[in-house]
Hints:
The structure holds 2 protein chains of 2 kinds. By secondary structure, chain A is mainly α.
Amino acid sequence: MSNRTLPRLLQAPAVLLLLVWMLVPLSMTLYFSFIRYVLNSLNRPEWTSPSLSNWRGFGNYNYVLDAKDFWFAVQNSVFIVGGILFFTVILGLSIAVLINKTFPGRGIVRVLLISPFFVMPAVSGVLWINMILDPVLGLNGIAVEALNNLVKDLKDLPVLGSFFSLWPELTPISFRATQTSAYAVIIMVTWQWTPFAVLIFMTSLQSEDQQQKEAAVLDGATSWAQFRYMTLPHLARPIAIVVMIQSIFHLSLYAEIEIVSRGNGNKNLPYLIGEFANNNIGAASATGIFAVILANIIAIFLLRMVGKNLVD
Amino acid sequence: MSIVTDKSNFGNFYRPILAWLVALLFFFPIFWMIFTSFKTDADAVKPEFLFFFTPTFDNYLNMTDNYDYWRFAINSVITSTFATTLALFVGIPAAYSMAFNPTRRTKDVLVWMLSTKMLPAAAVLYPMTFLTKNFLNIFDTHFLVIIVLCLINLPIVIWMLFTYFKEIPKEIIEAGKMDGVSTWGEIKDILIPLAWGGVASTALLCFIFCWNEAYWTVRLTTIDAATLSKLIEGNRAPEGLFFGRLSAVSTAAVGPIIILGWFCQKQLVQGLTFGAVK
């Protein structure tokens, strides 16, 4: 066997498998997005199976673009992803800087911190929405009620009571409405992915130039100045990577939305595709193509960065 | 000893306290889940038993009756194990040839492989359902779940193996070639023993991702091949009535994986950032 064929042969199974996995379903989605294809249609039974004679051109795309749901889903996807990114990056940076020095029990702190990342999304959703954020039975409700009771007791005190008399009765936030359940998703995903950001920032912090830092200290730079002018620029690349990887992962967030939204209208693109796919396959496919385009825009930047790092 | 030592009060006194507080705060939901799993369903929603209650193991003992836990757990073990094994079988030869016989196109192939990971799963939801249900007739089978889990993790597996293999000196592999060892022998007797740590942590990480996967395992199964993700996802509805038993089954579903995860923190960075962060 020649020098060239064997390496190719060894790569072939992986390449072929991934090629099929990528091309076959995607080209089917592309095809379905251009035809009329609905699963249940009493009037037009010919639309219930895929066929070129049901060609619709860009009709499905127009239909999707006109649907209020679509724009809401896009907006909501961006809102959820943006919220998660904002909190994970800020929290990740602060925590990484906080635990980047040695202190007693640092190993245990790291283990505790990373744990949320390994919780399966379904469990995270059920745990947060039922046991923590529920306005009545969850810790959220219990804490607010305890606070209200405390204030009520304080009001009855002889002298100090008048001081508390103006305090309002608090009502716990319900995370079951459309908008608030999006907040719930942001909270639970931030909880899960902050550890990831911390890990990456910590890895990167360890490669920071210590001599430069020592020089800065000798020159009398404050901690903030060190962070602002040395650490932060050093972290620019990892921050970009965290942002891109998370964007790609969270644009296809599904389990959390499914668990939290239960028909309250909170949806993102994958959820909307799931809804369309119950009947209108054409629209589901067109939405899918939009999702692919959205993800690709981010992926191109990410892959460029990753590709650059490859040593030939 | 570096001269940059934090002599301020913050460094010596508040830093550990703050770090511990943050860590405990992040771990709290998991702790709360484990804590609640020892309460009865009735106690779990009563504020007076919030912290003090009579612990019970009933939720764990009744897991089979309440949720048929073991069936789902066995499905998770089967699909994750086989998917990981398959991914290694396909990934090791590919990573081997990329690391030791790189061509001009190797870099492009690697980047292309990663790009398949960027495809939003939901976009191909219906074709996958259609193909597996009407065409191939493998909907809701272990086989399907194994193949899908293997494919979605294959890019990460190849990537991680590639970065580990690249660190092995080429000469060692070439020496084997001189001695007339076959390619398979090279992989089995030289490469894998040398890169054992890397292969093991790749496998571990792949297993964790398979176990936690929550899109395809939910959408491509109904009963027969349903995994723990599907079980928990299907039980999101009960409003507070079953906090105790739900906590127990959740703890059983995530406990082993969290512990496995502790062992591969470092590899996680490499695996998820595709080596872009060092």
